[in-house]
Amino acid sequence: MTQSQPQPDTWTVKDIGSVSAADVTDWMTVSTGCSLYSSADWIRHADLMDDGSAGHLVLYEGGQLVSALPTYTFERKRPFYYDVDAVLGLSDRGSTTAALSVAGTRLGYTSEFLTGGLTGSARKSRAARTLLDAFRDRCRERGEAGAMLYLTDDSLDLVLTELEPEDHVVLLDGSVDLTVPAGGLEGYRAVVGKSRWKQFRHEMRRFEDEGCELRILSMGTHLEEMGGLAFQVSRRYGHDMTLQAEIDKLRDQAERLSDCIVMAAFREGEMVGFTQFFLSGKTMYARGHGVAEEYGRKASIYFNLTYYAAIRWAAAHGYERIDLGPDSFDAKVIRGGRLHSLWALVIAPDWSDAEARTVREREEALLRQFRSVDERVVTPTMRSVAKRQGWEALVA
What pTM value is reported for the model? Predict the structure, then answer.
């Protein structure tokens, strides 16, 4: 365990390794108001992955844990979505043999500074900057590349004005969430409008006409059937997964994680589709899904499970938001979602001029795509980043 120099107000930052070294109640306090991916259960699940090592940074005030920043180090092969070079379009730069330290989420797509143990925006911001400084110092001491990936607007706001000049903030990805209307599908009908509702109602009828039946399951049953359906989706999109790997992933989640339900479609007693939702706070997080190829499109299985059944269930059980995650932004926004930016904060990258241009070109293309889908993605945070990084004209 390493320890930084004490800060004023008796603030001390420690590297505790795995989250299991922290008191669960303390971690629940600092992750209050944060996403599923910052919870103790989820981070403990990620800590068990064998391709990297956890080194979570926690901030104590007078002996009490008040803030935290999850981090992972990859010594050899980097997981694609947590390889800063790969996700920024620089996979050919030849630096993947160096150790990389990534702050934030693992097995998720929302990275945050965990500041639930503090009150007041000034103290939260100072805590986030203290943790980021500790992360930066540790990267320098170890000679590691460093980045925080999938950073939300709110967390970026805590540190943006105090970054070092060499740090680089890049638009990395996006995520869509949907506010659950009061009244469930009736409220949803009013939100999406008459013409869209006609399309969506047609999709609901296709589900019924194909003889599909909705069942709400707890996680832990039908794992082999779910794995087989997930494997069909992985194969369709060219993902490097095996059938057994899909089943094992679901089994690990069932054993290690709680508060999960499965919206499942059955036809003549056979499962033909599912969407998995983890429950955290007032939010349902859509995660894995699988669809039988022969019925998926003609029964609109994915849309019925991930949107219409989920909205109905969420409204009935007091959930206010459905986190739909990244990808397929058009379809998600059309169905009532809102697109939010996710950022990469790269610590003093050693990019060549050509590499910097590659990053900028990728970023500009992504921004054009985002604005074509949902103009609301241009937030005050994005404008502040644009001013800092010199692309204000792109958000004018």
Answer: 0.92
